[in-house]
Structure prediction request, 147 residues.
Amino acid sequence: MPNDPNPIPGWLECIARSGYRLTAPRRAIVDIMASSDRALEPLQVYDLGRQSCPGLGLVTVYRTLEKLEELGLIQRVHQPNGCHTYWRAACGHEHLLFCTACGRAVHFSGDNITPLIEKVSNQTHFTIQDHWLQLFGLCPQCQQNNL
Ligand SMILES: [Zn+2]
Ligand SMILES: [Zn+2]
Prediction:
């Protein structure tokens, strides 16, 4: 899986267009979310953010994450244990795979679930318009650690 290119320039442009003012604490959160290779809980974002921005408050973390989600830059990742984490949103139609042990996440495309969708549609008589697919498991590194 190739690394995503640095998304920061596009993010800053999108944030500027929305009229959202980037204070230093908000910018710290944006930098963390744009560069993280794993899905993060708000408290983890808070801990990381305080390293570069000691005055960062937890409320700012929550509000900024909400704003970034609203702008479509990050997405919620639902953990099997019910916790919420956030990771950068996919570009276009992609699905999410993440590690339940360390939170490492990747986007992937190229599913072929059309036969399944047709079957479900036939069974339920729904017109199915879209789907949202998230897989979870253990990344190669965490499999090693488990041995
Ligand atoms: Zn892992
Ligand atoms: Zn799909």
About this structure: Residues 99, 101-102, 104, 138-139, 141-142 surround zinc ion (ligand 1) (CB under 6 Å). The chain is about 45% helix and 15% strand. The mean pLDDT is 90. The domain at 8-146 is CATH 1.10.10.10 (Arc Repressor Mutant, subunit A).
